[in-house]
Structure formats: C-alpha cells, structure tokens
Amino acid sequence: MKKGFRFLIAFCLIALCFVSVVRAQDTVLNVGPKGKLDSLHSTILNQERMIQVFLPADYKPGSADKYDVLYVLDGGNWNTGLIKNVQKFVEGEGFMPSTIIVSVMGIDRNKELTPTHLDSWKGSGDGNKFLGFIKNELIPYVNKNYPSNGDNTLWGHSLSGMFVVYTLLNEPNLFKSYIAVDPSMWWDNSYVAKMAVNKLPALSDQNRTLFIAGRQDALTDMRIDTLETILKKAAPASLKWKLNVYTGETHSSVRMKSSYDGLRFTYEGLTNNIQIHPMSGIVMKNKPFPIIFLGDTNQVHYTIDGTVPTLSSPKSHFEIKVTGPAAVTYKSFGNRSRYDQLTKGIFTTEKIRAASSNPGNLQKGGFNYAYYEGNWEQMPDLKNLKPVKTGITDKNFDPEKLPRKNNYALVIDGVFESKEEGYYLFFFTADTGSKLYIDNKLMVTWDGGYTKRDYSCILPLSKGFYPFRIEYFHKNPDFKLNCTYMAPSAMTTKNTVQIPVEQQYGKKP
Fold first, then answer.
1. Is residue 3 part of a domain?
2. CA separation (Å) from 421 to 417, 456, 489?
3. Coil, strand or helix: which one is 121?
4. Using the 8-state DSSP alphabet, how is residue 337 labeled?
5. N or C: less crowded end of the chain, CB within 10 Å?
6. To which H or E segment does residue 92 belong?
7. Would you say residue 18 has pLDDT above 50?
8. What is the pLDDT of residues 273-308, one digit of tens each?
C-alpha cells in the first residue's frame, strides 16, 4: 500500500514537471502567424541564444519595406506578450509606425543584466559581455535576416531596465530610443546612476530619447530619484528624457501603462500626414485668409515664403492668418526625424472675374449630371463617350444609387450661385484623378488616399453666378464623392454644408 502511494506521488511530481516544461515551451513557441522562433550562436557568450521575432502585420514577404525594431529584454511571453499588444494598439492609433519586435530570451538574468559582481548575487557581473553580444552579434544578425531599417529601441524592466540605462551610457549609438521601466538603479550602490555623471556629457552629439518609469512609493528604494537628479544636472540638450511617476501600481503592473507612455514618448510628434485647409487656392493681395491645421500643433512649425521650416520658424496654431501670395509650408518635428512630415500650400493672386448677374437660361434646382460606365484604370477622355444616364442633382440625387458601385465616371456641370461676397472654402473628397472646376478654373485634382481624403481650395467670390464642374472617376469602392463648402459668414464657426439645390443651376432636362 505504502509502495503504491509512493509511486502515485512520484507519478504526480513527474506529471507536474512535464506540465511545467510544456508551459515553458508554450511561452517560447507560441509566436503566432507573423512570429518566428529563431536562434544564433554567440561566440562572446559561448552559448546558443534564442530570440522571438514578430514581423509587422502589414509585412509582405519579398517586399522592399524596412521597419524600426523594438528589442525587448527579459523576453518570452512574460514581457513580449504585453509589449506586442501595447505596440499594436499604439500603432493602430497612429502614434507609431509598423515595427518589428525582437524578444531577447534570457538564460540567467542575474548574470547577464548586471554590470558588476555582488557576492550575494551568484554569477552576477557579465552585463558588459551581454552588451557585447547585443552590439556585435544580435543586432547584426537581425539586420541581416530581417527587414530592419536600422532604427532601434531598447525596452527593459527591473534589472533589464537598469541594463537599458547602462546601454545608453556605454553604447549610445546602438539604439535611437531607450525605455527603462522601474529600473533597478539601486544595484551596487547606484553604480549605473553614478556612472552617468561622467558618461552623459559624451552624449552631446547624440540625438537620443530616454523614457524612465517609476512608482511614487518606490522612487527612493529603486534609486530612480538618484538617476533623476543626475539627469537634471548633466544630461545634454541632445538627450530628450522624461521620467513618468505612477501611483497605485506594483513593480509588475507598472509595465502596462509605462510601455504605452514610453512608446508614445519615443515617437512623440509622429503623424501619418499633415492636414491643412485650404490646401491651395486663389487669394486677394490685401485681404488675409485663414489656414486651419488639423491635429496636434505642439511640434509643428511653418513658413510662408516657401522655405523649409526649422525649429526656429514660427510655431503653428489651429488657425493662422496669411496675406497672399504665399507658399505656406508646414513641417512636423518628432523624436524620430525619419517620420517628420512636410506639406505645402500654394496661394496665388490671379484675378477672379466678377460674377454673372443671372444664370442665363438655366433653371434652379440642381446641376446637370452625366453618368458613364467602363473598366478604366484612370479617368477616361469623355468627349467621345456616350453617357449611360443623365439627370439633375436634385434633392433625390445620390451617387450611391447609381447603377454601378465602382468603375464609372460622373460629370456634374452647371452654375453655382454665390450668396455672399468674400472667401469661399471648398472641400472635395473623391477618387484618383477626379477634378473640381470653379469659374472654369481647375481648383483641385484629387490624388489622395486613405489618410488624405479631403482636398480643399479657397477663392474669393462676389455675389452672383459662377460656372461649376466636377469630373469624378470612381475606381476604389472605399472612396466616395463629396463636395461641401464654407461660406464667408461661416469662417468663424467653421461650419461646412453641402451646396443647397437652391444654389445649383442646370439645363432643363
């Protein structure tokens, strides 16, 4: 009986060990469809090193696209699972680009993440060798075998957070950005923090970012306050650093909020595109006109003479007033210059003729339209084509109700009645190659995309009637035709409206 009981206990222990091994393997092997478990032999460390590599969701094998790389220390699902999800969210919100994540699997963190030996920590003190492995073996391996663009970020927590700071001080060129979450700056009587006193001045020609996360009730215990004091005194202007302090978090839970904040700080100033309205147009010499900036203006500068803005150029605001003619240029400045954005608006002082006093023989209630069908790759020459359908853009007209959902062309033609005198701002959403004409002048050629749909123009109109024409080519089912305007009296409220049918004139059907 006792023998059988001992056998049962032994069997259970073996089973538990087996389950533990399986779970450890799951932590390593569950890399998902875009992930890969990889390894390389380290001559420096004299061992095989495991890494997990997660390619961006939009990566296509064989493409020439290159990506930033985020290296995660203390790898495996413990940290990498969290970082993957946070990075995906930050990217999805447009705050950072598509990124390769490299999970650096640890073997003996006490040994490889510590720069000095402490007798109470067995095997500690091989941090410099581990840094040599990252510099001379790991990063070159990733650059050779994966679509890296060479811009790297290093993330670490606790001991690996301290190692992040150690890496910045000793090898600042390895990474563009450093994220240290609740770093163990207490190690060896604040060895790394004290090292910073002499190392920081050497970073004066390096444009780098350092994000540090700490807990309110543990800043002193972790000696993060010591590092903060030194950074305030010795950090050069080229090192953009920030300490975020969190309340109500544990040493483990602080990773989530701080990872989000750290990635946001790393790519601060990044934007998919700069949007200004109007984007171009015709203006009067002595009458200022408004330009509206959509988005965060905190790190955006502008010029009005066509030169590329610098950090010493005027800072942008939601709205600026400009007197034409002008070549207005905006530039966003982020922590990663690779992603700085530039846009320009050209505003000329061409003469606009006086409006016609009447619409001639046209009738109120809608423009004329002609609808064409065909399988074209670009806007066709419609002169010799016969429309499938014609009509009036009255209250019942809806482009969504046309026979085809894509592969068609539409011409809208008539006369627009201007009820006020002053600047008019027109917004035009369309598909590639579509055009907007006002007063027989080509004002907009639409060549946007998913992140740049609304095109706009400005021009001064007097009271009366002006020719109006849209040439619309519909190829992409995701893009829709829309044309709105902002009248002079609406410039303060920024209220845009569809052109009322009462201000549309066309030929009698």
1. no
2. 11, 19, 9
3. coil
4. G
5. N
6. helix 77-92
7. no
8. 789 999 999 999 989 999 999 988 989 999 999 999
* Terminal-residue alpha carbon distance, the chain: 102
Strand partners, 411: 370, 471
Run of H or E residues at 81: helix 77-92
- Domain count of the chain? 3
> How wide is the angle at C-alpha 126 spanned by C-alphas 236 and 129, nearest 5°?
70
Q: What is the pLDDT of residues 387-419, one digit of tens each?
A: 999 999 999 999 989 998 889 999 999 999 999
How far apart (Å, rounded) are the C-alpha atoms in residues 148 and 116? 32
Residue 59 forms part of a structural domain: yes
- Crossing angle of helices 187-199 and 224-234, in 10° steps, is 10
pLDDT at residue 312 greater than cutoff 80: yes
3-state secondary structure of 422: strand
HEC sequence for 8-45: HHHHHHHHHHHHHHHHHHHHHHCCCCCEEEEEEEECCC
Same domain, 317 and 464: no
CA separation for the pair 157, 436 (Å, rounded): 55
Is residue 343 a contact partner of residue 274, using CB atoms and an 8 Å limit?
Answer: yes
Q: What is the pLDDT of residues 228-266, one digit of tens each?
A: 999 999 999 999 999 999 999 999 999 999 999 999 999
Domain of 385 in residue numbering reads as: 363-506
Of 207, 261, 310, 246, the C-alpha closest to 95 is 261
What's this model's pTM, rounded to 2 decimal places? 0.80
Q: Which residues pair with 244 in a beta bridge?
A: 213
Closest C-alpha among 18, 206, 43, 55 to residue 135: 43
> Checking phi first, is residue 194 left (phi over 0); if not, alpha (psi -120 to 50) or beta?
alpha
Write down the mean pLDDT value for the chain.
Answer: 91
Q: Are 434 and 473 in contact (CB under 8 A)?
A: yes
Answer yes or no: are the C-beta atoms of 466 and 415 closer than 8 Å.
Answer: yes
* Nearest one of 185, 308, 168, 315 to 240, comparing CA atoms: 168
Quickly tell me which residue has 């380290």 as its tokens. 42
> H/E/C letters for each residue in 207-275?
CEEEEEEEEHHHCCCCCHHHHHHHHHHHCCCCEEEEEEEECCCCCCCHHHHHHHHHHHHHCCCCCCCCE
How confident is the model at residue 3, as a pLDDT?
43
Is residue 13 situated within a structural domain?
no
Q: In this structure, is residue 17 part of a structural domain?
A: no
Res 449: pLDDT: 80
- Asked if residue 458 and residue 329 are part of one domain, the reply reads no
The whole-angstrom separation of Cα 280 and Cα 62 is: 39
CATH number, domain with residue 392: 2.60.120.1560
Residue type at 157?
A: H
Is the pLDDT at 429 greater than 90? The verdict is yes
